[in-house]
Amino acid sequence: MNFYVLTLFPEMIQNVVGTSITGRAVKKGSISVETVNIRDFSTRKTMRVDDYPYGGGAGMVMEPEPVFRAVQSVEEKIGRKPRVVYMTPQARVLDQTMVESLATEDDLIILCGHYEGIDERVLQETVTDYISIGDYVLTGGELGACVLIDAVSRFVPGVLSNEESSQFESLQDNLLEYPQYTRPEVWHGRPVPPVLLSGDHRRIEDWRHEESLQRTRERRPDLLRNSYQVVCLTYGGEETAERGRLLTERLSRYGSYMDYNRRKLQKTRFRMRPGNLLLLVMPGTCGQDDRDLEKPDTGENASGYDPAVRFEERFRGLYGEDTPAVLCGNEQEMQEAEAFLQGRGFQVIGHVTEAAFCDEELLQKTALKIREKILHFR
Ligand code: ADE
């Protein structure tokens, strides 16, 4: 991934980004960070790039032409128009889904302002994304650009080692991370929570989930509003179940599965809460394979799937409460499911076609889109 930072203080960027993990990534070639000095594009002999604001007022404003030419120089160099991010406090505050969305780009221009800001007209003409790093005002956009580069780089393949990997981490589920412990087992009279020494992975995962929830409740209750517990309901053959697992894993660390091939489940009443996200994964064309596998005597295949059970019958016990839902299957199945779920208290916010499972990158992007939708659902 290539970052092009347009700034009046290039050394500020290079000093920060050239250090630690981003510095290592630059050396390895996983990312490149090129700084472009806006002053080099000044139209004046004095090389000034700022002027007094029209209408009066304190401070100076950066002129449009040098900024425009600096953007153009990058576009000409790489032969395309990448996204142009302007760092400003007058914008949505950066979050993890925005970071991951930016990480899917090959090139990114980051524009840093100074003084009282940049002439509005060049922003209108060039900027695609406005990003703030927090509700406070800095002296310029450079520190914001460094924050952005650091956070985005973590998602670029090859930047983090396996141990540093970002697959599971704080904020993936819009939850803060659980507490961590290392040796010694007892320190200053404080023991490590016994569950972590149990070796029981299921219990450890449940404990971590609960700690994450509790910590988020205490420290960042605002995050909980957009935190969803993913519940994946599937029916069909092994291939369908595998799709359910693949998508759930990319949406949440703490997702759960329910196999609606099971007759007992079909008869049970199941009410999903507003804080759940229903992921309904249907057989689609995998259903064809499942039918081929039917056992002649029972009508069921190896996974217990009986294609003769009608959709409404299978989910007769399922209810939502203004619960968001994502559907995955073929067109006809999704239409049928949507009509049914809407009458049961669900709001369908996304559809995933079978093509999304063709390659890893596409699946990752699909999951990211769902996470973005969920973040703005309320
Ligand atoms: N420039 C000045 N303040 C900023 C902020 N909070 N975020 C991003 N860029 C900025």
What do these coordinates show?
This protein has 378 residues and is an alpha/beta fold. The chain folds into three domains: 2-153, SPOUT methyltransferase, trefoil knot domain (Alpha/beta knot, 3-Layer(aba) Sandwich), CATH 3.40.1280.10; 168-225, Trp Operon Repressor, Chain A (Orthogonal Bundle); 228-375, Rossmann fold (3-Layer(aba) Sandwich), CATH 3.40.50.2300. The protein has 14 helices and 16 strands. The strands form five sheets. The chain has a five-stranded parallel β-sheet with strand order 2-1-6-5-7, sandwiched between helices. The chain has a five-stranded parallel β-sheet with strand order 11-10-13-15-16, sandwiched between helices. A hairpin with a 2-residue loop joins β8 (186-187) and β9. α4 (96-102) runs antiparallel to α14 (360-375). The protein is globular and about 80 Å long. The site of adenine has 12 residues, from β5.
Essential attributes:
alpha/beta; 3 domains; Rossmann fold; Trp Operon Repressor, Chain A; binds adenine; 16 strands; 20% strand; Alpha/beta knot; 378 residues; five-stranded parallel sheet; 14 helices; single chain
